[in-house]
Amino acid sequence: MQPKVDFKNIYTGSQALEKAPKIYGIQTGIEGLDDLFFIVKEEKGKLIKKTLGGLPAYSVINITGVNDTGKSLMAEQFAIEQAHKGSKVVFVTVESPANFVAASLQIRATAMGYNFKDFEDNFILIDAASSYNLRENIPDLLATLAYVISTYKARFTVIDSVTGLFESKEMFARAIVRRLFNFMKSWYQTSIIVSQKRSGHEELTAEAAGGYAVGHIVDGTIVLAKELIDSQYKSKIYKKPLGDIVRLFRIDGCRLSGHDTKTHFLEITESGLVKIKEPISGGEEI
Amino acid sequence: MIIVNSREVPQVEFEDLVARVFSKSIDLLGGIVKLAEYKTLTWLPSLARATIAIVLKEEYLRSEEEIAHKVGITKNTVRNIVRADPKLALDKMQKIEELTKEESKNLKTHTAGGIAKLAYKLVKDGVDAKVLVNFSSAVLEDIMKTLDIPWAYMVLKRIKGIDFPISSYEVLQERLSDIVSQDIKLTELLPNLQYPISTPAQLIKEIKEHLKMKE
């Protein structure tokens, strides 16, 4: 069999642009995050940096970090914000059973000042935590997702966490994430996938997003970290007293838009909401 | 809140995919009749095992251990199957006489693995076994007749026996020369379709889209 040219996948620039979706910002419901993404536009012959006002639409963003850094909270806040705005959101839960996630979403919505009852049916939860089949059979999970997205006309998908899908077979991590990524793209989903980082890996790098180069596949990665102030040096650079914990946030690359590259403080409020604060290098709070 | 769990959703048919890949593997070897003529029907069990192993590995991301347990072969055999070189198997298949001599009774694991791997790739690319394409074309023809879309079932009738994928319009030109829909000769549309076309359904869809554009 001779190698064949795959004509179907060759596009000129204009043909590809015809099919390209327009990139705009999707509000995340996370204070301080939306203005960290921007695009560059030409106005009167000058290039101007304009805020996107949220995550780039149709992007697949990976949120990674060790435990207790606020990954799930961020994913939940994003889901609530979009459901509250009236969009259907698919939430694939791989760690906690769906009823626990529902309870958590309700608490989060109240903290955000929304009445959960008004939009609770905008959430469609896929319970992969309770179903061995959905967790272990990627084709079944994708078939379920396709069914849910087409039935409910969903535009947003959250997976918490993708690490749970390759728990017992880490060598398949990239293959699994690649399939999920391709799936999200073909269904035009704006998507957040959460992945867990091992504590042994260096903080604030996306490379250790589960340790399996998942960052190369997705459109962008948000890295979260926490640090114990256990020395005078740290106390000085983070301007916090000894014994405190600081949480940190950084956007580690985004293919679809420009983004802030600084490391920021991250705060989890008493009501359980994530806020992105000023950069650690100083500067104004955003 | 709507909660979906696996009991409510349609299951992906593992068996269907295995059967399609198995059929394609037989297709690649020249068909079941040819295998009988060469007295190599003994190859079929090895081919079936290799097919299941490849589908479990590629589609369901199963570990070698899980595959060995499911198919009832050793882990080492699974390793030989999943590491087989499809190109080598392809080279061998092109000289089927030599292949039958070389592997007279039993198909070697790595050859079976190579064939199954190639067949899996082709099926995933939309190129199914000839027997399945012909059967689905016949079913499609019945549907088009029932729905009363004359040009469509005429097309399906005329393309019987044609080899898919179709890579250029010349093969269709003569067969469809006298079919007309809404005063448009289908032969006028053929050069504009997007080739290669891998199934009869795709051919009908392409023609329909171009007819729509002419409306």
Descriptors for this entry?
heterodimer, A: 286 residues, alpha/beta, 9-stranded mixed β-sheet, 3-stranded antiparallel β-sheet, 14 strands, B: 215 residues, mainly alpha, 2 domains, two-stranded antiparallel ribbon
Q: What report would you give on this structure?
A:
The complex is a heterodimer of chains A (286) and B (215). In chain A, the strands form three sheets. A nine-stranded mixed beta sheet of chain A has the order 7-6-8-9-5-10-11-13-14, sandwiched between helices. In chain A, strands 3-2-12 form a three-stranded antiparallel beta sheet, with no helix packed on it. In chain A, strands 1-4 form a two-stranded antiparallel ribbon. Helices cover 27% and strands 27% of the residues of chain A. Chain A is built from seven helices and 14 strands. In chain B, helix 3 packs antiparallel against helix 4 (64-71) and helix 6 (86-93) crosses helix 8 (109-124). A two-stranded antiparallel sheet of chain B has the order 2-3. Chain B folds into two domains: 2-132, no CATH class; 148-213, no CATH class. Classes of the chains: A alpha/beta (286), B mainly alpha (215). At the A-B interface, helix 3, strand 7 and helix 5 of A face strand 1 of B. Strand 7 (123-127) of chain A pairs parallel with strand 1 of chain B.
